[in-house]
Amino acid sequence: MASSNYLVKKIITFFNYRKLITTCALLPMMANATIADENFQQCKVNLAERAKNTGFSTYITQTVINNITPIERVIALDKKQPEFSQTFEQYIKARVSNYHVRVGKEKLKQNKALFDSLEKEYGIPRQYLVSFWGLETVFGKHKGKMSVLNSLATLACDQRRSEFFTLELLNLFTLIETEKVTVDQLQGSWAGAMGHMQFMPTAFLKYAVDGDNDGKVDIWQSEADALTTAANYLNQIGWQPEERWGREVKLPENFAFEKVSFDQYYSLSYLSQLGITTTNNQALSTYDIQAELYLPSGYKGPAYLLYPNFNVIMTWNLSKSYALSVGLLANKLVGANGLEFLKGEQALKNRFSYKEMKNLQSQLNTLGFETGKPDGIWGPKSRDAIRSFQLAHQLIADGYPNTALFSKIKSVLDKSEEKTTKIDYQG
């Protein structure tokens, strides 16, 4: 059975971390952080007022803020992130490529002395650091050329996630004010991430380490600084050195999906009782660890058991597809075989469209299976609602929006409409 105490502990740890990462040395930043306004000039006025009230100098409140301009493309990119626009298989193939594996192995050799030191001091296995490096910037090739100031300001002025990006922008001002970075350095991704490992300003502020001992932290030019900061970051947010991130597993035919809920943790012994094995049909380990079963493409695709370190990866990027990419690439870097699901033909090749998913969410809401406000994204609420509908209608309860689900919902809605029409006619 699921360990409720364990799950509660993980949830508390996660949300404590989220609270921690949005806090910096300047505590007033936590209050009334949102500055969003449809008019960018007014938003800049709001930002200047927030910065002034927080105690920043006129250099920040006037010179730096006055020079900020919006980037329209940033909003478009924010709404079309690959985690939501690609199938899991497409996403993984682009990130766990032969190139990533080949170059990643070269980086392991080139930086052996550094990784020896980092493993000893921080307890982070080298393959994970290289995996993050490869996924974030293709080992430094693509660190981003957008203005971090303008990108963060654009997102802070947008209503969707204003509070998060306002806090990041204010923390960036702290980095500038304390001369940890210069304005000229501030190039990065459309979301404001910077350097070899793509740190957000708050992560830089809290976890930056001078890895090459030259008296400064330069995450753009110094690989040692960037990798050391990443090791410190992962260590501080709870990485367990003796444990792996998870593993791909095999489900038996006619697996009892009703006995496993999503986003819940179970002992390996319980999962073994349900018939889950390794991909080569061996019994699961008897190691005392809790695991979550995750099916990124439904029951026809791959199946994974996710361990606590997977949640640590998720604090770096809140996308399970991303976190799986980190784990799978790390495995390949140290000699793991090819990914099982990429060898076979069972993986789903077509993704439901944004419009189809949004319509499905509306239909589920109508039928009493609550997904929240339809947004076209297959998230936790939608997964749970789909699973509940599948259980109620004797479908395979994998929580995935497959053809059988769409067909069954249409049938149920058609019957409901026929019944309503008949009653109206008789009345």
Keywords:
two-stranded antiparallel sheet, Muramoyl-pentapeptide Carboxypeptidase, domain 1, mainly alpha, 20 helices, 427 residues, 3 domains, five-stranded antiparallel beta sheet
Task: Describe this protein's structure.
The protein is mainly alpha-helical and 427 residues long. It has three domains: 1-243 and 312-345, no CATH class; 246-306, no CATH class; 354-426, Muramoyl-pentapeptide Carboxypeptidase, domain 1, CATH 1.10.101. The protein is 53% helix and 5% strand. The chain contains 20 helices and seven strands. The chain has helices at residues 4-21, 40-54, 58-66, 72-78, 82-85, 88-95, 98-110, 112-122, 126-137, 148-156, 162-177, 201-207, 223-236, 268-273, 308-316, 320-333, 340-343, 354-366, 380-392, 403-426, and strands at residues 146-147, 187-188, 246-250, 266-267, 277-278, 290-294, 303-306. Strands 4-6-7-3-5 form a five-stranded antiparallel β-sheet. A two-stranded antiparallel sheet has the order 1-2. A hairpin with an 8-residue loop joins strand 6 (290-294) and strand 7. Helix 11 packs across helix 12 (201-207) and helix 15 (308-316) packs across helix 16 (320-333). The longest helix has 24 residues, at 403-426. The radius of gyration is 24 Å and the shape is flat. 40% of the residues are buried.
